[in-house]
Fold this protein.
Amino acid sequence: MPLRAFILFVGCLALFGAAGLPALAHEGSGYGGGFIAGFTHPILGWDHVAAMVAVGLWGAVLGAPSIWILPVVFPLVMALGAVAGILGIPVPAVETGIALSAVVLGLMVVFAARPPIWIAAVIVGAFAIFHGYAHGTELPATVNAFAYAIGFVISTGLLHLIGIAFGLLVSRPGGRIAVRAAGGVISLAGVAFLTGLA
């Protein structure tokens, strides 16, 4: 229990700390400017937050080894998507893919879907491409691309940790309902993103 509380505390602290820095997100061309821009980008977009927390939740629902594999697959593939965005390689329906990621991943949590791990990894990786592509195409021209990428990968990892920490409640009395309800909220948020209501 102390480890879970610590993970949640560190994740929340990082999010609150970064949320106070949005004015710096597109400033400067050095390591700090690029890192801060990359770090704040995922946490300032609720569509990104929803999907990334859902990855951690679903991993926790699936248990080991998915609890660590899914949150590793997502940022790795997301980085590849970012490279595609930076290079200008066309990827269709990016915003739709991002919104659908929240819908689908939220539903995976709601129904406690348990596909083979490779299928879960493919689902997570497919959606990570859209998220990474959005990060890559929105890279401010004045920032260090490497520092930006490190920032958004770390931020994504923290969002996954928040999902994992909450998802660990699944083994507690009443926790399964709370985790599935969180998946439902994420899925509904995805529908709102998809329909333009959010």
Remarks:
- The chain has one domain: 35-195.
- Helices lie at 2-19, 31-43, 46-62, 66-87, 94-110, 117-137, 145-167, 175-195.
- The two ends are 35 Å apart (CA to CA).
- Residues 145-167 form the longest helix (23 residues).
